[in-house]
Task: structure prediction
Amino acid sequence: MAIQPQDYPHVFRRYRKLNTEKRRTLQNLRKQLGVIDKRLTTLSQHIQDPRRPDDERSQIHESIKAAQYGRNQYLSEITRIKAQPSIVVNKDYIAEKYAEFSTICALPEVVSASIDSNDAINVIVRASYVHNGVRYDIGDWAIIFGDPDPLEAFKVIVYRQCLRTDWSRGKYPEYSFDDGSFCLGTNSSIIASHFGAGRYRQAIQLTIFALNSVNPGHEHLVPSAYFPYPQTPFMTGVPQWPHSMSGQMQSTS
Result:
C-alpha cells in the first residue's frame, strides 16, 4: 500500500526533531530522576519505622529495590544522551531526514501515520500472513515511537483487530497481551536498540517482520483465527475502525 510523505507534513515535522532535542530530553530525565529520589527518601523513612510489621517492611523493601532499578536506568540514559554529539539542524539535515521518512512511508505495509496526544509518532501498518497460498488479514497495528520519555522506546498496539468472533484473544496464533500490545518476543530488544540508536526504518521493518510472522507449529491455526484478506467484515469498502480505538489517534486529514 504505502503512503505519500507529503500527505503527512505534521508527522514529518515531529520526525525531523527526533534525536535533536537533547536539552529537553535531559530535562525530562532529570525531572523523573528527582521524582524517584523523593520516593526513595520517603520509602527509606518508612522502612526505618520500628512500628511497621515485618510483612509491610518487606513490601517497602521490594518497592525500594524497584525504585533503585528505575533510578539506575535513568542515570544510564542521562549518561548515554550526554555523550551524544549535538546535531546541527540545517537544510542538508532536513533533506536527509525527509529522505529517511520517505523510505518509511514507502514500506508496503504502511497505511497511515499520525501524532498522538503524547507527541509520539504513530505509524500504522497492516499485517498479514500467507498460508497455503491464501493471504490472511492479521489486522492493523500502531508502531508508536518518539515519546518524550526516552525510556519509552516504542510500543506496538493493536489499531484494528481482525480475529474471528469465535476465536479467543490470547490464544495462539494471536500474540498480543491483554492491553492490546503485541508480543515481539526475542525481537523486542533488537527493535528497542534500533529505536534507541535512531535507526527508525530498520526498527519499523523488523517490527513489521514480527507482525507478519507466525511461530512454528501455529501455521495451521491461522485460517481458524483470521479472515482471508480482504474479507474481514469491516474491511469491505472503506475500512471501519473499531469504536474502541476512536479518539486514540489524531486525524491525518
Observations:
- Confidence is low (pLDDT under 50) at residues 234-253.
- The chain has two domains: 22-83, 92-237.
- The longest strand covers residues 134-145.
